[in-house]
Amino acid sequence: MGLFDSLKKKEERPARKPPVKAIKKEAPAAHRRDIDVIPLEEDVLAKELVKPQFRYLKKVVVTSYSDLERISEELQNGNIVLVDLSPLEVKPDILTKVAEQIKGMVNALGGSAAKICKHEVKLILTPSDIKIAK
What we know:
Layout: H1 41-49, E1 57-61, H2 67-76, E2 80-84, H3 92-109, E3 112-115, E4 122-126
Parallel strand pairs: 1-2
Antiparallel strand pairs: 2-4, 3-4
Helix pairs in contact: 2-3
């Protein structure tokens, strides 16, 4: 037996047909029972766990310190917040304090913050599970 003999196809034998068996007749409809499919508890639990959670992109125009509470609530709910600080541009001292408050709040919640516009003061704030690529 040579090296290439094992690679050659062996002679194919004709396929044997399976023996023919008697076909059973179906039971009459009176003896049949319809079975209802009941979902398993595991399927129900899996659907609840995989249920999509809706998140929103919300815009908040900051005119005073009271708007910071709304921003905090939205971040804690998992929403992304667009913050418009342009009304505070006429009051630079308040603008810097509000910006520091926002930065501290985002860091405390584990989120991210980034400036969006070059000429206007607009920020995007994200919750802890969404990161901003800078």
